[in-house]
Amino acid sequence: MAYTKNLMIGVKKKQIHVYELLAGLFVMTLIVSNIASTKIVAVGPLVFDAGTILFPLAYIVGDIVTEVYGFRKMRSLLYVGITTLLLTMLTFWVVQLLPAASDWHNQAAYDATLGVVWRIAFASMVAIFVGELINAYILASMKIHTKGAKLWQRLIGSSAAGSLIDTAVFSILAFAGTMSNDAMIHLIATVFAIKVATEVIISPVTVKLIVRIKRHERIDTYEKPAAYLVD
After folding, report:
1. CA 193 to CA 209: how far, in whole Å?
2. Which backbone phi and psi does 102 adopt, to 5 degrees?
3. Which domains does the chain have, with CATH numbers?
4. Which residues contact 110 (CB under 8 A, 6 or more apart)?
5. Is pLDDT of 49 > 50?
6. 141, 230, 157: which is closest to 196 by C-alpha?
7. Cα 205 to Cα 168: distance, rounded to the nearest angstrom
8. CA-CA distance, 206 to 188, in Å (whole number)?
9. What's phi and psi for 164, nearest 5 deg?
10. Among 227, 222, 179, which residue's Cα sits nearest to residue 3?
């Protein structure tokens, strides 16, 4: 089941293409947050990778795309994001392997900042894909169930579920065997709490953006994601 409320008949198409802006922001967030994750920061008792600061934006953009344009559009954007992230990692890896010029002495800095650890890269891509897909699936399903009502609850509920799966999958795939179970649980809890707190704090802005984008685009999509999960 899928249908879209579209009121563009007789209306001149607007020049600002919101979806393209959101898509660029989503891809940028995936790439930059993965690069930033190479630094571990400590804020009071909290210890987490610096990519956590930006990464919740990916879920916010995912929520907007799913709510306005539908599950299939978000799934396609997710494919693009993961492919772009993989291409970025492959480029960094090839550059890492290329011999440096004799007068260039920054290989260690490059390796520390942009050098690819494939276990971390693989964990990141799997976690992002699974977490974002679950987020979009729950949000789209709840939209059908509530007939488009309770937007705030749907945004927070779907993002919390997706973020929990994302954080747990990444932590287990990336760090299993390298830290104690207690340390891993603490890491997952800390990163998850930061992500959800960010979502909640930003949620009033997210709701307003969704309402404005729906008006601007004159579109509001309802899809049962189960019908399109594998097509």
Report:
1. 24
2. -65, -25
3. 2-99+106-228 (1.10.1760)
4. 95, 96
5. yes
6. 157
7. 27
8. 25
9. -65, -45
10. 222
* 101 burial level (CB within 10 Å; 0-12, 13-18, 19+): exposed
pLDDT, residue 10, reads 42
Write the burial class of residue 49 (CB in 10 Å: 0-12 exposed, 13-18 middle, 19+ buried).
Answer: buried
Of residues 178, 194, 183, 180, the one with CA closest to residue 43: 194
Higher pLDDT, 228 or 89: 89
Residues 6+ apart with CB under 8 A from 54: 29, 32, 33, 36
What predicted TM-score, i.e. pTM, was given to this entire model? 0.87
Model pLDDT for residues 114-136, shown as the tens digit of each residue: 888 888 889 899 999 999 999 99
